[in-house]
Amino acid sequence: MGIKEFFEKPKEYAVVLCGGGGKGAYQVGVWGYLDEIGLTKNIKAISGCSIGALNSLLFASGDIKRAIDIWEKADASLFTHKGDDRLSTDDSYEENTILKRLRAFISDPLTSMAPYSQEGIEDLIDTHMEGRYDRLFDDDMMLYTSTSRVKVRGVLQENHHLPLAGHYECLNGKTPEEIREWTLASCAIPGAYPPRRIGEHLYYDGGATDNVPLRPLVWARFKNIIIVHLRTADDPKEMERHITSFEGLDLRNVNIWEIYPSDPEVLGDTMELSYEKTLARLAMGYNDAKRTLSVAPGFFGTRLLPPEA
User: Fold this and answer.
1) Is 47 helix (H, G, I), strand (E, B) or coil?
2) Which terminus of the chain has a lower count of CB atoms within 10 Å, N or C?
3) Residue 150 — φ and ψ, nearest 5°?
4) How far apart are CA 181 and CA 226, in angstroms?
């Protein structure tokens, strides 16, 4: 590195946080490394999907130690709260009958079929973000979340299929209640959780349409983007998502660093969550980021060397 590069002013970076349920602790490990090398102060945008949307709130509120603590204390109940009592199998009460189930299905079929509620995720957001929403947009931070909007006409026309349209929402300028709702919508996995109603539409997990929400950052003209995946690079599903997410984007003059989990056994399953597994994911995220990113010190701060072709 020459003298000119040493005195070069630091670039602005943006980060994509993909979806992946309990594997999200991996992203906390990556963020820990970015914070350690002093790069987080130059991150000006985060685009998150599903658990990545939740992590974006933890990171943007500026307390990595608290984020680590939250993940270390989390267990499988974060994702597996049972749905409401409309689906109770206790037949000792007149209300818990087939008739009640039928009424629930007719009035709200998408909700009645969901086995779990988002109560655990709601509690996590409310506990962590209380008094912290005003920190999210310090230093001109931009936050985006990826969701999937239910196309009602499609539901009626396409029979058993659930047509979804990808939707990206900028959280800047929104109230704490709106930020909370869009984050929960991004985490609402179809078939597991009910959709979230925002305005006139129903929304599901962004991973159903775009699990690598790169688009809003490219549209916002960020030129240096770090993508943190939650599947290995050779995972067929991740390869398919990669093609879908990159398709049609003009990436000329855009530097993209992609950080992939290096060990699928350590990474584990999407709904698997325990203290031991979280520690392993945190460590792997930190080490994979350190291995993937080449850091160049400078007079004005740390920057990344261009990604390998």
Assistant:
1) strand
2) C
3) -75, 125
4) 26
Q: How far apart are CA 213 and CA 50, in angstroms?
A: 10
Q: Which residue has the tokens 């460590």?
A: 283
Is residue 99 very low, low, confident or very high in pLDDT (cuts 50, 70, 90)? very low
SS3 for 144-211, per residue? Answer: EEEEEEECHHHHHHCCCCCCEEEEEEECCCCCHHHHHHHHHHHCCCCCCCCCEEECCEEEEEHHHCCC
Q: How many residues does the chain have?
A: 309
Bridge partners of residue 72, in order along the sequence: none
Strands 295-296 and 196-198: unpaired
Distance CA 124, CA 74 (A): 9
Over residues 208-235, mean pLDDT? 96
* Nearest of 265, 223, 198, 286 to residue 44 by alpha carbon: 223
pLDDT tens digits, one per residue of 165-212: 999 999 999 999 999 999 999 999 988 899 999 999 999 999 999 999
Q: Quick: pLDDT tens for 43-60.
A: 999 999 999 999 999 999
pTM: 0.86
Q: Which residues make Cβ contacts (< 8 Å) with residue 96, sequence separation at least 6?
A: 85, 88, 89, 90
| Token duo for residue 193 | 């959780």
Enclosing H/E stretch for 106: helix 98-107
